What we know:
four-stranded antiparallel beta sheet, mainly beta, single chain, disordered N terminus, 186 residues, 11% helix
Amino acid sequence: xxxxxxxxxxxxxxxxxxxxxxxxxxxxxxxxxxxxxxxxxxxxxxxxxxxxxxxxxxxxxxxxxxxxxxxxxxxxxxxxxxxxxxxxxxxxxxxxxxxxxxxxxxxxxxxxxxxxxxxxxxxxxxxxxxxxxxxxxxxxxxxxxxxxxxxxxxxxxxxxxxxxxxxxxxxxxxxxxxxxxxxxxx
Length: 186
């Protein structure tokens, strides 16, 4: 179901129009307010507040990846992408933790009690972003894509989201798909 309406918002001397969209599927309901002057979608908190859900998820804390070579992955996530290494508690298996903003990547070195490393590649007909992936915001999409190319990183594809964000999808050393995107410049 999609409901569109035009509403004027007065922000000082600036008046702009927004479109309210409600998208309903069997699994989710979400509302988005398109703010053309900001070039992004804003999801109203009234749709996802802990008071309306039994669990109340707040944020993504980390993504865990199983890898074949910790230092090779550190070169990708730290040296190329610019994440920083952070202290990792002592576990009974080797790993590394990296951080960007409030999100961490936890690496686990493949061992006999872990899953396999990486992911199988998606079929060629799967869209570049229509595969399992996670995304990082970067300040300059073009610069990021150029750095990936210079570093010889395999790129899955590029795209432009409907909200104006430019995207590039690449593979980390173990085949995990990583999206880098930048928001439209105001």
